[in-house]
Amino acid sequence: MLTRLDKKILEEIQNNFPIVQSPWKQLGRKLHLSEKDLIERIKILQTQGYIRYIGVIFDLNKLGLKSTLLAMNVPTEKMKSVVRIINNYPYVSHNYLRNGKFNVWFTLTARSDKELDFIINDIKKKTSIKDILDLRTKKVFKINVSFKL
Amino acid sequence: MYHSNFKIMKKYEKSILLALDKPLPIEKNPFLSIAKRTGIPEKVLLEQLKKIKKNGLVRKFGAILGHRNIGFKENVLVAWKVQDELLDDIAEKIIHFKMVSHCYARKSYPLWPYNLYTMIHGKNKKECLSIVKKISQKTNLKQKKLLFTKQEFKKTKTNLEKILK
Q1: How far is A3 from chain B (nearest CA, A)?
Q2: B1, pLDDT greater than 70
Q3: Partner of A46 at 20 to 30 A CA spacing, among A91, B88, B90, B141?
Q4: Closest Cβ–Cβ partner in B21, B28, B153 for A96
Q5: Best residue in A1, A56, A60 to probe B by mutation, most B CBs within 10 Å?
């Protein structure tokens, strides 16, 4: 269970992480914790799965990268091998099993639309699955993975 | 870093970008340890990070929390069918919902006519469904597909080093 202090820590590192030489010292001052105690607590919160990542998140769109969401119709008996093939690509960041005829949903990011086409063709060949929807990103309206505690 | 597009980025700009695209070490002086690892001075890393945070190339600097662990145990991807000319207006209404983390327009097909995608988070399935209902009411959208997660096969941060190599 998260204590009140834990929640305060998580809110701060989620929303107000400072760009300075010693960020933990500065955050600690705000939270009335020593730098050492805060670092220890952060490591625990990370091990317990409350923190997934700390660092820089780039705007991939602005960087000039292209992305798409793919929906695949994968028969149950092929599921394991298909998932292994898909997950192996470094271009794939997320992959989920969902309900419905199209049951495998994954995201692809690459340097260009052409490269995306190439990877998708490669996936089709390797998995022998043709029933696949390429839901190419047209516009990003919102990305904000920030949660209220 | 003056260029935001990787295609026209100078080599040293790219090396700074890749140096920063790793989990921040949980240590007293995390940028110093990145500096030691990469040979890029700590001062340069801090200056450039501030700059690219300001110009928007960095969307966020900070922590991504494990949303399941902090209480948002359920999520649903909803694919909506929206008239093309209404996309911007409808999206504008949807992005104000706090529990919508992602909202994208995507290509659609005759057999799959859904063109707007929203990721919705809630404490449980019931809460997710109530947000979906509120969005339907607010936007008058009728046709949609609810895609609940049955299993997570992969969830990582995009690997820039491999993509840009």
Answers
A1: 12
A2: no
A3: A91
A4: B153
A5: A56
Is the same domain home to A93 and A130? yes
Whole-Å CA distances, B138 to A28, B17, B20, B95, B155 = 42, 41, 40, 12, 31
Write the pLDDT tens digit of every residue in A26-63.
999 999 999 999 999 999 999 999 999 999 999 999 99
Secondary structure, 3-state, chain A: CCCHHHHHHHHHHHHCCCCCCCHHHHHHHHHCCCHHHHHHHHHHHHHCCCEEEEEEEECHHHHCCEEEEEEECCCHHHHHHHHHHHHCCCCEEEEEEECCCCCEEEEEEECCHHHHHHHHHHHHHHHCCCCEEEEEEEEEEEECCCCCC
Domain locations along chain B? 9-54, 67-148
ipTM confidence = 0.91
Co-location of A90 and A127 in the same domain: yes
Range of the domain at A106: 66-136
Please give the CATH number for the structural domain made up of B67-148: 3.30.70.3460
Q: How far is B47 from chain A (nearest CA, A)?
A: 9
pTM over 0.80: yes
Q: What's the DSSP call for residue B162?
A: H
Average pLDDT over residues B60-79: 92
A128 and A86 housed in the same domain: yes
Substitution target from B125, B158, B160, B161 for chain A, most A beta carbons within 10 A: B158
**Number of independent structural domains in chain A:** 2
The answer on A38 and A87 residing in a single domain is no
